[in-house]
């Protein structure tokens, strides 16, 4: 798996895991803000074959190589948040702080049978710029980042997309998630689908040391929609345990 590093290698390590449909570039505002940390940003989709568990194991190996006894902070969005959950379940003691943003954990097996024919039918739309702009808008991707988003989407193989969507759609909370020893913050946007809010609540209820917040006036992608707000609450939570503004999930 390819990755880039930024910041100060002597300070705590921050691993940023991007979502599906975007790349490591989605974290540019974060690596600039957290330049005093050792930031590591992988590219999940640099291989044709994709699985959440395999990605989690590869990233855990990378963390063990890079962290060398330093505190570890894990931040994942959407598909990347699912990978973060899997990582916590495989190595419960490795990660000190985790921010799980917009993770789907309520599987939809009934939808799986129609996934492949639907994707093959609609796949040509990915190369349509008008359609791509609508998708980018939903993810809060700005005009400067659109070309990167479009090029990555347009070059993805249909088989890879089907794998990603199947993994995302069928993901559920692993049995050992509750064993994770670090602090966990779960966030979801108030404008996201109800299944995403239900997923956030399920995660909070599955771990005794987690806190969850529904972020006001946000859809799917707070770090892109409001990077300054995101950076501020990440910093406050890590340093002071302060929860971001929003509705606390009980």
Average pLDDT across residues?
A: 93
* Unreliable segments of 5+ consecutive residues: none
The description of the largest β-sheet is: 8 strands, mixed
- The N- to C-terminal Cα distance equals 37 Å
Major sheet: order of its strands?
Answer: 1-3-2-4-5-6-7-8
Helix content: 40-55%
Question: Would you list the SSEs in sequence order as H and E?
Answer: EEHEHEHEHHHHEHEHHE
- Rounded to an integer in angstroms, the radius of gyration calculated over CA atoms is 17 Å
Helix/strand-derived category reads alpha/beta
Describe the structure.
By secondary structure, the protein is of the alpha/beta class. The protein is built from ten helices and eight strands. The chain has helices at 28-33, 52-67, 79-90, 112-122, 129-138, 143-154, 158-170, 194-206, 222-225, 227-240; strands spanning 3-7, 13-17, 38-42, 72-77, 97-101, 183-189, 210-215, 247-249. It has an eight-stranded mixed beta sheet with strand order 1-3-2-4-5-6-7-8, with helices on both faces. Strand 4, helix 3 and strand 5 form a beta-alpha-beta unit. Helix 2 packs across helix 3 (79-90) and helix 4 runs antiparallel to helix 7. The radius of gyration is 17 Å and the shape is globular. The model has no long low-confidence stretch (mean pLDDT 93).
């Amino acid at each position: 798996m390819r990755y880039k590093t930024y910041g100060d290698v002597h300070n705590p390590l921050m691993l940023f895991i991007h979502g599906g449909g975007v790349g490591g570039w989605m974290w540019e505002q974060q690596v600039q803000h957290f330049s005093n940390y050792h930031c590591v940003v992988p590219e999940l989709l640099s291989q044709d074959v994709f699985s959440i568990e395999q990605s989690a194991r590869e990233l855990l190996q990378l963390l063990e190589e890079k962290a060398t006894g330093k505190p570890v902070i894990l931040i994942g969005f959407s598909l990347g948040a699912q990978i973060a959950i899997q990582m916590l379940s495989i190595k419960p003691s490795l990660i000190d702080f985790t921010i799980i943003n917009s993770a789907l954990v309520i599987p939809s097996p009934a939808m799986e049978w129609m996934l492949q024919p639907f994707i093959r039918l609609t796949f040509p739309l990915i190369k349509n710029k008008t359609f791509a702009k609508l998708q980018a808008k939903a993810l809060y991707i700005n005009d400067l980042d659109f070309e990167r988003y479009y090029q990555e989407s347009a070059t993805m193989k249909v088989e890879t997309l089907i794998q990603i969507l199947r993994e995302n759609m069928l993901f559920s909370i692993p049995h050992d998630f509750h064993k994770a020893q670090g602090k966990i913050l779960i966030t979801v946007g108030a404008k996201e689908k109800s299944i995403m809010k239900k997923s956030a609540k399920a995660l909070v209820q599955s771990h005794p040391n987690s806190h969850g917040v529904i972020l006001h006036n946000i859809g799917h992608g707070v770090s892109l929609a409001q990077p300054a707000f995101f950076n501020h609450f990440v910093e406050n939570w890590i340093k002071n345990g302060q929860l971001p503004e929003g509705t606390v999930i009980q």
